Amino acid sequence: MNKYQIASDNFDMDSIEFLPNDFEFIGNKPEEHIDSNFASQDYWKDVFIRFKKNKGAVIGFILLVFITIMAVIGPMVSGYTFDQQKIEFQDFAPRVPGLEKIGVFDGSEVMRSPGGGSSRVINKYKTTEGAADVYYWFGTDNLGRDIWTRTWMGTRISLIIAVSAVLIDMAIGMSYGLIAGYFGGWVDNIMQRVLEVVNSIPTLVIVTLLMLVFKPGLFTIILALMVSGWVGMSRIARAQMLKLKEQEFVLASRTFGAGSWHIIFSEVLPNIIGQIITNTMFSIPNAIFTEAFLSFVGLGIPAPQASLGSLISSGYNSFTTHPYQILPPLIVLALLMLCCNMVADGLRDALDPKMAQM
Amino acid sequence: MKKYIAERLGTAFVTILVIIFVLFAMMQFMPGSPFNDEKLSRELIEKLNEKYGLNQPLYVQFFKYVKNVAKFDFGISYVINKNISINLMLKTRVPTSMRIGLQAVSVGAVIGLLLGIIAALKHNTFWDNLTTVISVLGVSVPSYVFALLMLYTFAYRLGWFPLLYTKTEPFRSSLLPTFALSMFTIASIARFTRTEMLEVLDSDYMLLVESKGISGPALIFRHALRNALIPIVTVLGPLVVGLMTGSLVVEKIFSIPGMGALMTAAIQANDYNVTIAMTYIYSVMYIIIMLVVDLLYGVIDPRIRLAKEDSGE
């Protein structure tokens, strides 16, 4: 019998004769057998490609990087420090070299009466002695402090607070949820009841109480954000753990003698890292907002330190007469939250395409 | 379902107790005593302590405190309005805050629903994109940013609305704060309605309804929206939180004499008694609303109810 002939019950293969030259040898390099469309790309490269396709997320990411860089170098480039006061240079409007020649940011401001009645233009750089060659890019506040420096200083502090609070949140919430989900039974029951009670106390209340007991400051704000922020993360971690712990790879690991600790953090955790990252990204704007809110209410960073919230709060006092004082921190805050949300949206869709919104 | 309600009530009750306990503990940790006057002699202080029951053991004081708080009796304000009972201060403030809160919720719900429906019906058109932009902005930008921008543009520059809240024009002067507060509601409801409507419009039963010859408003409102509305109940919880925190700042900006403004003032003036009273009231409100939302969700969506019964939760 010819070695290329194949027998079959319902198809008479004997009548077909395969000849050696029916087939063409295309080489035997191993990579040519791999489906190059999908198989050779690892998960993170896939994620990156999907993220890149989302225009909003990319723009948000670029802006976010820009704001972060400005938060680092911004305070250094203006030549002023954030707490340097010059009382004779108070309430100066923005003045930028170069731009002043075309009539914007030339240090003049319009004083108006409410309702758009009478108005007149003044320029304090010209009327104040020794201010002819002074430039404040974003103007000065009511104590003569440079708003440019203070805005980026405030951005830096807001970012530090938000990122550290969220990272701690993530660690606590993740471990809590994973442990509760893995062990189940009475452990889960008790942990869930505790979580329900913590979750039923409004964040506002937790934060206010903590701020009353401790001295206002960086650490207290981070602590307050931490106490209230871990619940959402732990819910997600627990739900994922409940789903994954019945799967074969966990069983296999256990059969090989892996301990609970190893299964939780080395087997299950890498599989849910996508959701954890997305949730962390969504928590950052929340933390920034809570901090700004606290500062606005008067529970924030004490002066002369500034955060975006406290800058908005002090700009608010004179925002009808000197709107330029409140605008920079307000715009940075809004942009920061917007960018974080857009990046988080993009990350969610990229990490888990099934979750992509229609 | 009964078991679920009982458990949910139990959790709410325990939470309120925990909050009362924490508040009581905080009172003990606060520095100083109510009788700091140097002119008071030792005997007089002892007499005062006896009069106010401060010489009794802590647990007796605690039970007394629980009893008072349960009756919403918080004592007097020490700083903001000297020796005025907090209940008296709240009497006019609660209705004001409630009215503006309700206005914000209604405006937000109506506009949000409309935007969401339009976006879903005109999927991938200009209206859809506009809704997405509005909802991203509304969720990301804090309500006080809107409040300040609106105050500057419409009240200060254009003069269409009064700058601050006035009792003589309670409606016209509450319009700006209402819109500032409702932005978050509009955004989240629009976003949610859009997603849900898209899902429902794509479903088999909508195809069936359409093939039976139903079209127009009856199709959208009676068949699509009704099913899309169920999950929207879940966003009510976050919305309430947003309104509560939002009201604190927005009431300060527009100087509305409401609960949020009182709490802000109390925090800034270190009026512990008022702060603690407001904290308690906000917590109770929050817990009750969350309880109602949870139970409502169980009632509306049979799938949740059945799942809860199965798992015995």
Q: How many individual β-strands of chain A?
A: 2
Quickly count the helices of chain B. 13
Which radius of gyration of chain A do the C-alpha atoms yield? 30 Å
Poorly predicted tracts of residues of chain B? none
Q: What shape does the CA trace of chain B take?
A: flat
Question: What would you call the shape of chain A?
Answer: flat
Instruction: Give me the secondary-structure category of chain A.
Output: mainly alpha
Oligomer: heterodimer
The structural class of chain B is mainly alpha
Report the sheet with the most strands of chain B, covering strand number, pairing sense and barrel closure.
none
Into which percent range does the helicity of residues of chain B fall?
over 70%
Mean pLDDT across all amino acids of chain A:
77
Helices, strands, pairings?
The complex is a heterodimer of chains A (358) and B (313).
Chain A: H1 43-53, H2 55-77, E1 108-112, E2 119-123, H3 124-127, H4 147-183, H5 185-200, H6 203-213, H7 218-244, H8 248-255, H9 260-297, H10 308-316, H11 327-351
Chain B: H1 2-29, H2 42-51, H3 58-70, H4 86-121, H5 126-140, H6 143-157, H7 175-201, H8 204-211, H9 217-229, H10 236-253, H11 259-269, H12 272-300, H13 302-311
Task: Throw out a few tags for this protein.
heterodimer, A: 358 residues, MetI-like fold, 2 domains, two-stranded antiparallel ribbon, 2 strands, 58% helix, 3% strand, flat, B: 313 residues, mainly alpha, 13 helices
Structure notes:
- The complex is a heterodimer of chains A (358) and B (313).
- With 358 residues, chain A is mainly α.
- Chain A folds into two domains: 43-81 and 144-357, MetI-like fold (Orthogonal Bundle), CATH 1.10.3720.10; 93-127, no CATH class.
- Chain A is 58% helix and 3% strand.
- Chain A has helices spanning 43-53, 55-77, 124-127, 147-183, 185-200, 203-213, 218-244, 248-255, 260-297, 308-316, 327-351, and strands at 108-112, 119-123.
- In chain A, strand 1 and strand 2 (119-123) form a beta hairpin.
- Chain A is flat, with a radius of gyration of 30 Å.
- With 313 residues, chain B is an all-alpha fold.
- Helices cover 74% and strands 0% of the residues of chain B.
- The mean pLDDT of chain B is 78.
- Classes of the chains: A mainly alpha (358), B mainly alpha (313).
- Chain A binds chain B through residues 112, 114-116, 193, 196-197, 200-205, 208-209, 211-213, 285, 289, 292-293, 296-299, 312, 316, 319-320, 323, 326, 330, 333-334, 337-338, 340-342, 357-358, and chain B through 11-12, 14-15, 18-19, 22-23, 26, 29, 123, 136-137, 139-142, 144-145, 148, 152, 156-159, 163, 195, 198-199, 241, 244-245, 248-249, 252-253, 263-264, 267-268, 272, 275, 279, 282-283, 286-287, 290.
